[in-house]
């Protein structure tokens, strides 16, 4: 393993590690876990704020005093963590602890080495690189994929559904018009997507598939993706255009890593509920990683994404933070440079 013997602590991993001790005080539980476990890690990686305290406790109790890497906001006072967290990796748009200026200044100073990323760190880029799918297959499908998250609260659900269904309805007309470069439209919903919204899209696709012999319209639900995880990666790989709702930082980050697809962000009225989302979407748009989705921009940019030979090429810049983060980690941990 490039980072040595690492202990990756997600919520379920932590519960499995601590077993019956999980419901006790975090420090006591981690003490029991360290006593019972035979591993002596070189690195502890805590993913998310819920694991930060457990990782710190494990570090303090472990005889090897392993390096501790915190992914995402630790939800703890950074000024008290200078001896417990060695490296902090967070998205730029999180703006760590904006209400605690003293802690924020400490984090940006000499307290904790801080790697800031645009969006989330993921492995979609390397998985796409390893996928055995040909250029000919992608040209054949000429696919557009729409990735849907979900509204941030019940009050915005109706507006969210209206904007998403309107966009999908326009895309259906765009695909069936016969004057474009696409013959396949697929929509991928997530666990946060309201059932009513999925039903509306399913009904629209059922009607359209009956009338159109040359085009294919597919709805892939979260349950479908859970049964076959390759469906999501396949949709990314075979699409020439990716449209993602503005509410999902993870899906936008993953879609931005697809080198041959042009990325569009579908605004659904969610940005006014979150400064964090607004900062992220603005960064993506202003730096050329994505375009805002509307009829004119899509028609223009999607048409430009095909070369004279018909090969799809992205008109947005691909974003892949994984390699940069790994290189910086190797440097901060004094590991040999990655080949």
Question: Could you walk me through the main structural features you see in this protein, from its secondary elements to its overall organization?
Answer:
The protein is of the alpha/beta class and 339 residues long. The protein has helices spanning 11-18, 26-36, 52-61, 101-108, 124-130, 135-141, 157-176, 195-211, 222-227, 230-238, 249-256, 275-286, 295-304, 322-332; strands at residues 6-9, 43-47, 67-71, 87-91, 114-117, 143-147, 184-188, 216-220, 239-245, 262-266, 291-292. The protein is built from 14 helices and 11 strands. The strands form 2 sheets. Strands 8-7-6-9-10-11 form a 6-stranded parallel beta sheet, sandwiched between helices. The two termini are 14 Å apart. Residues 1-5, 10-15, 17-24 and 97-110 have low confidence and may be disordered.
